[in-house]
Specification:
With 251 residues, the protein is α/β, with parallel strands linked by helices. The protein has a single domain, classed as Rossmann fold, CATH 3.40.50. Helix content is 45%, strand content 15%. Strands 3-2-1-4-5-6-7 form a 7-stranded parallel beta sheet, sandwiched between helices. α2 links the parallel β2 and β3. 46% of the residues are buried. It binds nicotinamide-adenine-dinucleotide. The site of nicotinamide-adenine-dinucleotide has 28 residues, from α1 and α4.
């Protein structure tokens, strides 16, 4: 019960990957979780399942992180229901692999809005409550794409993820006096059933082949890193990026 009595607001937490796995891990450790996602019905369903499975209070809400009003509503609803927000887990991010010459303005804007601007909206919205509490843990999911050159059409996504890491370092400096930490987790390839809808098969093969550790990374591997950052044990770590990559990226 490492997160007993904590309130965790999670974005993009109703899918098949890291977001839902982290919501479940935090609930298992005693946190009340607010499951938000751009898909309202799925958010409500997942929130209900988590509540029944782990006997914690949950809330399921629509929140498209590209929509400032949605973000503000989700934060208000969380404060209305629970009175505080201890943990913000910024999971929302999207990729539409395209070579630079083929990226349309719309695709560029979508990737940046979801991955970078959405993270900013969520951080900005929760900080006043965290300052009042004199406590907060902000954890954002980035990617090793934000560090390295990659073929395969990741330039917009990589730029957005690098932006989240840079943003987080400055944010961490600003909020540290209020005992708020801000960190990022950079996974390499983490498979889930939806991945084949995003990446072609040869790109999936290539991403697997880069991993020296002899098993595939799972959403739970990222959830465990998030649990550390959210728990008491993670208190003195801020402005950092935890790379969870099975050794495919080392720095
Ligand atoms: N899967 C990987 O290999 C991998 C690797 C590195 C980084 N990441 C990052 O991890 C995060 C989670 O990815 P995942 O693949 O584990 O999937 P996930 O299941 O955790 O997230 C998918 C969910 O995101 C939601 N979503 C998409 N756009 C949204 C928006 N604008 N507002 C709110 N919700 C939105 C979808 O509805 C879906 O339910 C993303 O930020 C991704 O970029 C993933």
């Amino acid at each position: 019960m490492r997160l007993k009595d904590k309130i965790a607001l999670m974005t993009a937490a109703a899918g098949a990957g890291i977001g839902q796995a982290t919501a479940r891990t935090m609930a298992r450790e005693g946190a009340s979780v607010v499951v938000t996602d751009m898909h309202e019905e799925r958010a409500k369903t997942v929130a209900g399942e988590i509540s029944r499975e782990y006997s914690v209070r949950t809330l399921g809400l629509k929140c498209d992180v590209t929509d400032r009003a949605d973000v503000d509503r989700a934060v208000e609803a969380t404060l209305g229901a629970f009175g505080r927000i201890d943990i913000l887990f910024n999971n929302a991010g999207t990729n539409r692999p395209e070579r630079v010459v083929d990226i349309t303005d719309e695709v560029w804007d979508l990737v940046l809005a979801t991955t970078l601007t959405g993270t900013f909206y969520c951080c900005r919205a929760v900080i006043p409550a965290m300052v009042r509490q004199n406590f907060g843990r902000i954890i954002s999911v980035t990617s090793v794409a934000g560090f390295r050159g990659l073929a395969g059409g990741h330039a917009h996504y990589a730029a957005a993820k690098a932006g989240v890491m840079a943003f987080t370092r400055c944010l961490a400096m600003e909020v540290a006096p209020h005992r708020i930490t801000a960190n990022t987790i950079a996974p390499s390839f983490i498979f889930n059933e939806f991945i084949p809808h995003i990446y072609p098969e040869d790109e999936i093969e290539r991403m697997f082949e880069e991993i020296p550790y002899p098993r595939k990374g799972t959403p739970e591997d990222i959830a465990n890193a998030a649990l550390f950052l959210a728990s008491d044990e993670g208190e003195y770590m801020t402005g950092q990026t935890l790379c969870v990559t099975g050794g495919s990226w080392m720095r």
